[in-house]
Amino acid sequence: MHSTTTQKHSIQYSYLIGVIGVSLILIWLGIYKFTPTEAKLIEPLVVNHPLMSWTYQFLSVQAVSNLIGATEIIVGIGLLVGFRSPKIAYYSAIAGVVIFITTLSFLITTPNAWKVSDGILVPNFFLLKDILFLAVVVRVMEKNKM
Question: What parts of the sequence cross the membrane (predicted)?
C-alpha cells in the first residue's frame, strides 16, 4: 500500500512540476515576444511557415510577435488557472497543443533548422525541446477531458 501511495504522489508531483514549468516558460517567452529582439528572432520562423507567413501582409513584424506573445501568455495563465477549473485547463491545453505543434513544424519549414556538425545531423534544440512541452499539455488535456 505504501508503494501505491508513494507512486500516486510521485505522479501528482510530476504533473504539477510539468504544468507549472510549461506555464512559466510560456509566460516568460510570451513577455519576451513584446521586445524588438525577439520579434526579429522569430521573423525567419514565421516568414517561412506556410500557415503563418501571410500575417506579415497585414501586421508588422512586432505586431505578429506581440500577437504570438499574448497567445502564449494567455495559454500559460490558463494552464495555471486550470488547477482550479478543469474546463479552462482543457481548452488551454488544446491551445498549447496548437502552439507546440506549430513550433515543432518550424523544424520542417525553416531553412537551416537542421545543420551537420561533426558529421551528425543536429536540429535547432530551441525548437526540439517543445516535444516535452507537447507531452505535458497533452497530459493536461487527457486529465481534464470534457
Answer: 12-34, 54-81, 88-108, 120-141
From the list 76, 94, 101, 88, the residue with the least C-alpha distance to 137 is 94
What pTM, to 2 d.p., does this model score?
A: 0.89
**What tens digit of pLDDT does each residue of 31-84 get?**
999 999 999 999 999 999 999 999 999 999 999 999 999 999 999 999 999 999
Is-contact 88 71, C-beta < 8 A? no
Beta-carbon contacts of residue 114 (< 8 Å; ≥ 6 apart)? 107, 121, 122, 123, 124
Beta-strand (E) ranges in the chain? Answer: 114-117, 120-123
| Calpha distance 64→56 (Å, rounded) | 7
Look up residue 52 and give its DSSP letter: T
Which of 31, 19, 27, 133 is closest to 82 using CA atoms?
A: 19
